[in-house]
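Usage

Read records sequentially. Each one opens with the input sequence:
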Amino acid sequence: MNEFETVRHILDATHRIALVGASENPLRDSHRIMRYLLAEGFEVDPVNPNAKTVLGRPCVPELAALTHPIDTVVCFRRSDQIEPIARSAIAIRARHLWMQLGIVNKAAMTLAHEAGLLVVMNRCIMVDHQRLHLGRT
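and closes with the structure output:
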């Protein structure tokens, strides 16, 4: 599957997202993109050990604290922090790992791929969703 097909498949197959690095700050990209994803009908679980809620949704401190299946783990953390998130995504049996624009971690990508997850790296989920599902450029 090429990158375009992977992006399309993940977006089409995703209903529930765990957004790691969700922020209460409306000026942060994670906040704005979470708002967009919710408006587009995705279920989004914010993951942030320092917040109680984001956009009215209760936060969990880590992926392991989620109590329901997750389709896609979306990462808003520095590249050097992604490998443990990938391990947690594997442990909770997520199906996809999405590293946002500017986030590149090849070791995490390999780890997730080897565990059977589809992986997207260095792309914005909001921009890709708009391009593929709303016809925006």
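Summary fields computed downstream for this record:
- The longest helix spans residues 3-13.
- The helical segments are 3-13, 29-39, 82-91, 106-114, 125-133.
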